[in-house]
Design goal:
CATH topology: Metal Binding Protein, Guanine Nucleotide Exchange Factor, Chain A
Helix content: under 10%
Strand content: 35-45%
CATH architecture: Beta Complex
Shape: globular
CATH class: Mainly Beta
Length: about 130
């Protein structure tokens, strides 16, 4: 598992392929949130600084959904509906990638931590 701790590049995207991105991963923990939207989407969160994310194609097919405070920008492909990344409320200038949308099945490379997003205000300080 030591090789999993090295920085690696991955590509991913939506289901139909209209949205494609590349990420640079140097952190091997993701969070599984139980808030209403994340639970329904099955999102496994890997929050990255913007320099570790490159949108390769699909800006023209991305649609954004906001609710509550409007800070989080939930982007998704308007063709297939997949939410492969977004700008999270906790880090609005960063990118939160759903590792389930990476090309390879990489879940075994990551430690999955539960996050109680249903009680977001009490727990937001725990997001890294």
């Amino acid at each position: 598992m030591s090789r999993d701790r090295e920085t690696q590049k991955f590509q991913g995207g939506c289901h139909c392929g209209a949205v494609r991105f590349q990420i640079l991963v140097d952190r091997w923990k993701v969070q599984e949130c139980n808030c209403s939207i994340c639970r329904k989407k099955g999102f496994l969160h890997l929050i990255l600084p913007p320099e570790n994310f490159t949108l390769l194609k699909g800006q023209d097919v991305l649609t954004t959904y906001t609710f509550n405070t409007g800070i989080a920008k939930h982007t998704f492909c308007r063709v297939c509906g997949i939410h492969s990344f977004y700008h999270p409320r906790s880090h609005p200038n960063w990118i939160d990638v759903n590792i389930r949308c990476l090309d390879q099945d990489v879940l075994s490379h990551f430690e999955v931590e539960p996050f109680d997003g249903a009680n977001w205000k009490k727990n937001v300080h725990k997001i890294r």
